[in-house]
Amino acid sequence: MHAISPAADRSLAARFNRATFIASAAALGQLPAGGCEVAFVGRSNAGKSSAINALTGRRKLAFVSRQPGRTQLVNLFDVGAKQRLADLPGYGYAKVAREKQREWTVLLEDYLQQRAELAGLVIIMDIRHPLSPLDRLMIDWINPRGLPLHLLLSKADKLNRQQQARTLAAVRAEVSRLTAPPASVQIFSSTTGEGLDTLATVVAGWLDGAVQRED
Fold first, then answer.
1. 80 neighbors 12 (Cβ within 8 angstroms)
2. pTM for the full model?
3. Widest CA span of the chain, in angstroms?
C-alpha cells in the first residue's frame, strides 16, 4: 500500500478526530439502520480499543482496560456523513461466565453475518500470537459475505524489525489461503503510531466506497 502525503495524513486525522460515541447495543435489532460502518474485532486484550483510540486521536473514546473482556456490547462511534466505527465485543477470555460468552458469540455472529450496514471488518491480533482458532472463526463468519477484511498485527513495538517482517510474511501467506479475495495485512502499534496512516487509509476508503455505492 502506498504511503500517503502529509497533507492527506492531516486530513484523515481531522476526519476521524470528530468521532463521537452514539450508541451501545446488546442485540442486532438495537442498532441504527442506514449509513455504513467499519467494525473492529479481536481477542480480548489484543489492542482493539487502543487501535480505535489511536485512529481517532481520542485516548479515551473506546474504553481501554488491563482487564480483558470489558467490551461487552457493540459500541458505535459517528465519524460524520452517515459513517460509523463499530467496536465489537472481545472474544476468547476464559474467565467470563459461559452464559456471557454465549451471549457475546450470538451477538458477534449475528452482527458479522447479518448487519447490512457493515462495509468492512478489521481484525486486531497481537503480532506475537496471530491467527488463533477464534481469529479464524471470525474470518469464517465474514467470508461468505465477500466484504473486505483487514488484519491488524498490533503491539508491533514488542518485536524487532526482523521478527515483524517474518510474522507479517507468514500471516499474509496464510490468509491468502483462508480468504478470497485475500485480506490485507499490516503491522501496527498504538504506542508508537506505526501503521496508523495505513489503517486510516483503509478505513476511510471502505467508508467512502460504501457511501458511493448507496448514492
1. no
2. 0.88
3. 48
Angle separating helix axes 133-142 and 161-178, nearest 10 degrees? 40
Distance CA 120, CA 115 (A): 11
Cell numbers given for 110 = 449475528
The pairing of strands 36-42 and 83-87 is parallel
Contact 16, 200 (CB under 8 A): yes
Percent of the chain with pLDDT over 70: 81
What domains can you pick out in the chain, each with its CATH number? 6-214 (3.40.50.300)
Q: What are phi and psi of 169, to 5 degrees?
A: -65, -40
Distance separating alpha carbons of residues 101 and 90, to the nearest angstrom: 10
DSSP-based three-state secondary structure for 38: strand
Tell me the C-alpha distance between 122 and 38, whole Å: 7
